[in-house]
Each structure stands twice: as structure tokens, then as C-alpha cells.
Write a structure and sequence with these properties.
Elements lengths: L2 H15 L11 E15 L7 E13 L7 E19 L16 E2 L2 E2 L2 E13 L2 E8 L2 E2 L2 E2 L9 E9 L5 E12 L26 E9 L4 E10 L3 E13 L4 E13 L6 H5 L18 E13 L2 E11 L32 E10 L8 E11 L9 E12 L9 E10 L6 E13 L2
Antiparallel strand pairs: 1-2, 1-22, 2-3, 3-6, 4-5, 6-7, 7-10, 8-9, 10-11, 11-12, 12-13, 13-14, 14-15, 15-16, 16-17, 17-18, 18-19, 19-20, 20-21, 21-22
Length: about 450
């Protein structure tokens, strides 16, 4: 049992002893979230098989309030269950590398009939500072929980958040394990290049911390630091400005990441042992060493339900952009975080264009749509084409009123070309509904 789980259970026992106290029960809330997920990935060349999967998820979420007193205790609980309705293609059987599909884990060489994961999070609050230990789902510039399949990715560790200083939000934490979106088991963390499940290298030490400062109602600046032991250290600077124009609104979003090697990844012997990053493997290069700078700028103009965004992103250095990546899907805090590709190869330059529309202005409350096109070029990574592109279409509808209020319907489509791992067409259909229990 890892340290974060032990601390979560200890906090839970203390909270149970005080559960009768006002606040713990009175401020509690619970829900049963349902998600029906269909996934169809059609590979257009012979380098990988197609993947078709369909499943139903049941996710119970309980969040307690806090006990009374200067130090308040609380407890959050999660229980998630995914049931396979159908799986064919790559998901129906193990491939040559024995890798699972995107939605279900493998069981005896085939997609599992079902899988589950449970989590407990102990909470402690003093004033406006909270300590959490146990199951965590961070959404920070240096780590984004991935929730693009049947069940979300979760982590185990510790995190402290503080809003005691006016206009500041402070965050710090340590993660020890990750439970991937198609796995019931906790494991160490890795990056692209070292994440092979059989012979890769992993770490149980991911540290992070940062601050969000609201300079004004229109301007926010950010700084974050993260380190995955023996792999990389990373600094992030961000700026978001919202400008109310006489007609419409204009948003500026600037981001910069500076990533360097750490521990065993810094040495030739460590990289020979497998502590390596994907990236450019050309002549005279320290093969596998983390060396990446990434900056981006995204500008968005919004008016009466319309939203138009244009952006540019560039990476420099000899490695790909490092981030927690088990090889089974990930999200990154980048303007190029597309449905499938991420556009983070060594040397890659990407242009982004997107258009979104909210149909509420036409009397169709709950209906939204968007289209995004991203094109990457100048990729330095050996063995790949030097350019790639992706086009994403998305339609979301949430029933706004009536018997089925809150029922969500989502259609997502992606077409990607140029990346030598595979040219693909991908479709996702999602039906979601949340049932409040208390």
C-alpha cells in the first residue's frame, strides 16, 4: 500500500469519527455518472490495425463536506466500472506488441469484458488551504488528467491548494502512481521513448508546484514547476488576458515551457538503461536526452456566440516535449492538444485555426459545435515525415430542460495525416448523464 493511500485511509478514519458533526454530512454530495462510449479508429495504412470499441461506464462520486473546527476533515470516494458492449479490430485481440486497445485493457490476449477502479481521498482544511491525499485528478499546466475514453485517468499522491493570499492560488504536490484510462492497476510514470510496458523505465516521484496570480479581472499570470525523477525538469510561464471590446471580446493566451534532463536521463549510462526521451536521433546528438523549449500564442475573438481562434506553436531542442505518458493516451496543456495528435515533436512548428458556435442565440440552448485544423511542419524526429495535420469536428448537445434535462450527446470526428505511426480517421460517440444521489 503506497503512502498516499495510507494517509487517505487515516484521514478517512478521523473523518468517520467526526462524521456526525455538522458540515461533513450536511455539505456532502454524491452522484452516479453514466457514460456510453463508442470509438472507431480506421487506420488508412498497414502500420496498425483498426480499433472499434463500445462500452458503458458507471461512475459513483461522493464528496463530503468538512467537520467543524479550526481543522476540518473530509473524505471523497470514487468507484468506477466499465462494461464492454463490443470490441473488434485491435481491441479484440492482442497485437504483435501485446498492447491493449484504447478503451479496454487486455485479458488473456483479448479485450477484457469489464474493468474497474476505486479511489479514496482524505481531505484536511485550515482556513482556505486544503491538503488532499489519495486519488487525485490534477488539471494543471504541467499535468492534465486524461478523460477522453470510457473511464478517466487517475493518480495517487498528495496535493495542497491555498487561496489564503488575495488574488493568489498556490498549488504543490507529489504523485506516486498513475491508473491509466484503460487500466485498473497503479503503476509508475514515464515519458514517450521510455514507456514500453515490458522493458521501459518508470518513476514513482513526480513533484510539482505553481502559482496563479490575478493581476486584475482581465489579466492572469502563471508560473509552474514540475519534475519526474530521473527523466525531466520543467518550468512553465503563462499569461491570459481578456479584453472587452466595444464589439465582442478578444482573448490572448501565451504559454512557454522550458524542459531539461534530470537524474539518469542526464547521463549516457542512464540513457543506456532506458531512461530516454523520444526526439531527434541525428548525428552528434545526445540520443534520448530531454532538451526542449516550447512556446505558443493563441488569439481568440468572440462575438454573439461566434468564436474564431488563430494560433502558432514552436518547439526547439533535440527532444520531443516531455510529459507524463504511459503510451495509452494523454492530454497536454497546449493549444495543439487535438483529439489524436499533439504536435510536440522535436523542432515542430504548428499553426492552429478553429471556429466555434453556440446555437443558444438561435434559440437552440445546449447545442454547440466547433471545427479545428492544425498543421505541423519542420519535424526533426528521425523516421517520421517532416509534416502532419489534423482536422477535428465536434458537436455537443445537452438537453436544457424537461424530463431528460442534463442528458449529454457528443459526436467527435478527427482526420489525421502525415504522421508515420498511421494515417487515421476517428469517430467518437458519447452519451452521458448524471444522476444526483444526495
Amino acid at each position: 500500500m503506497n503512502h498516499s493511500t495510507c494517509l487517505a485511509l487515516a484521514t478517512a478514519l478521523g473523518a468517520v469519527q467526526q462524521a456526525a458533526a455538522s458540515g461533513f454530512i450536511d455539505d456532502s454530495k454524491a452522484s452516479l455518472d453514466l457514460r456510453n462510449f463508442y470509438y472507431n479508429q480506421d487506420t488508412r495504412n498497414a502500420k496498425a490495425a483498426s480499433d472499434k470499441e463500445w462500452g458503458q461506464a458507471f461512475m459513483f462520486n461522493y464528496q463530503s463536506g468538512f467537520t467543524e473546527g479550526a481543522v476540518g476533515l473530509g473524505l471523497d470516494l470514487q468507484a468506477m466500472y466499465g462494461l464492454r458492449l463490443d470490441a473488434s479490430g485491435r481491441a479484440g485481440k492482442a497485437g504483435e506488441d501485446n498492447t491493449p486497445g484504447s478503451v479496454f485493457p487486455l485479458s488473456d490476449g483479448k479485450a477484457a469484458n469489464d474493468f474497474s477502479k476505486v479511489g479514496a481521498t482524505g481531505k484536511l482544511r485550515i482556513a482556505q488551504t486544503q491538503l488532499k491525499a489519495g486519488t487525485l485528478m490534477p488539471r494543471l499546466p504541467v499535468l492534465m488528467t486524461e478523460d477522453g475514453r470510457l473511464l478517466p485517468q487517475t493518480f495517487r499522491g498528495y496535493q495542497v491548494d491555498s487561496k489564503d493570499l488575495k488574488d493568489f492560488n498556490l498549488v504543490a504536490g507529489k504523485l506516486e502512481q498513475v491508473l491509466d484510462r484503460n487500466s485498473s492497476n497503479g503503476q509508475g510514470m514515464s515519458i514517450g521513448g521510455a514507456n514500453d510496458p515490458q522493458k521501459g523505465q518508470f518513476s514513482n516521484q513526480f513533484y510539482y508546484g505553481g502559482v496563479d496570480y490575478s493581476v486584475s479581472k482581465q489579466l492572469q499570470v502563471q508560473y509552474y514547476y514540475a519534475s519526474l525523477e530521473n527523466f525531466y525538469q520543467q518550468h512553465f510561464l503563462g499569461l491570459v488576458h481578456n479584453w472587452q471590446l466595444p464589439v465582442g471580446q478578444f482573448k490572448t493566451d501565451l504559454r512557454y515551457f522550458y524542459s531539461t534532463s534530470d537524474g539518469k536521463n542526464s547521463s549516457v549510462s542512464g540513457r543506456a538503461d532506458g531512461y530516454v526521451s523520444s526526439g531527434y536521433y541525428g548525428p552528434g546528438v545526445n540520443t534520448g536526452k530531454v532538451d526542449n523549449r516550447l512556446w505558443s500564442a493563441l488569439f481568440t475573438y468572440a462575438l454573439q456566440g461566434h468564436s474564431l481562434s488563430l494560433g502558432y506553436q514552436k518547439t526547439t531542442g533535440e527532444s520531443d516535449f516531455p510529459h507524463i505518458n504511459q503510451g495509452q493516451g494523454r492530454s497536454v496543456y497546449l493549444i495543439t492538444n487535438a483529439q489524436s495528435l499533439k504536435f510536440i515533436n522535436a523542432g515542430e512548428q504548428a499553426t492552429v485555426g478553429s471556429y466555434a458556435y453556440d446555437f443558444a442565440g438561435l434559440g437552440l440552448a445546449g447545442l454547440k459545435s466547433s471545427v479545428t485544423y492544425i498543421r505541423g511542419s519542420n519535424i526533426r524526429t528521425a523516421g517520421r515525415d517532416n509534416r502532419e495535420w489534423e482536422r477535428d469536428l465536434r458537436i455537443d448537445y445537452v438537453v436544457p430542460a424537461g424530463t431528460f434535462k442534463g442528458l449529454g450527446l457528443t459526436w467527435r470526428s478527427a482526420v489525421l495525416r502525415g504522421n508515420d505511426s498511421a494515417d487515421k480517421d476517428e469517430t467518437r460517440l458519447i452519451v452521458s448523464y448524471s444522476i444526483p444521489l444526495m
